[in-house]
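re: ur question from yesterday

yeah so i grabbed the chain u mentioned. its 215 aa long if i counted rite. heres the sequnce exactly as i have it in my notes:
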Amino acid sequence: MSEKPMPNIGADLQRIHRVVTRGLSVAQENCQTFASNGFPDEATREGFWKYCLGLEAIALGHHLAEDELFFPYLRERLPATDFDSLEAEHQQMLATLEKMRQARESGSLEALGTALSEMNALWHPHIEQEETQFSPEIAAEVMTVQEHISLAQQAAVFSQQHTNPAPLAIPFLFYNLEGDDRAHFMRVMPPEITQQLVPVVWKDEWAPMKPFLLD
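ran it thru and got these structure tokens back, copy pasting raw so excuse formatting
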């Protein structure tokens, strides 16, 4: 029987980054297609805009968790890291997420495409810096195993409180990952979420997103 991987906040941050990175790619590609050709049917329209809302929710919740939970915890352990610059970049991305929200609520694919391009330009250099500064190897050096576990537990609670709407955001999180990455997040979530809410109670709410999610 294979052992569970050691808890590591650096690896968790990379997993969230993969969710948002895929979400941006899928949203941008489909936005361009639908802007050129229109939506093929109402179900696709509904699913696409719900997918965009899930992307906004996860990206917003992630940045809030870093600013309010991870960065304060890591400042004293990584004094050479320029956290102020990273937080300033978060503010830029939050402004862009607001443009995405406005575009989604107005149903403007043109405005959404512009906002997604802006977000992509900000996102990739930002996460490259974060993943260099907070790599799993560095995180393992500056934190004990118990600290990783404690911070991960705090992050799970924080995410449940600040990532909304949960019936879209949590399935978005799970199904923009695959394999061990998906299994990791499903394992750390309460059984009520993974066994009841996502597959049963929330299913009708998030099901329209399925064409844009991984199997």
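noticed a couple things. The two ends are 25 Å apart (CA to CA). also The CA atoms of residues 8 and 140 lie 7 Å apart.
anyway ttyl
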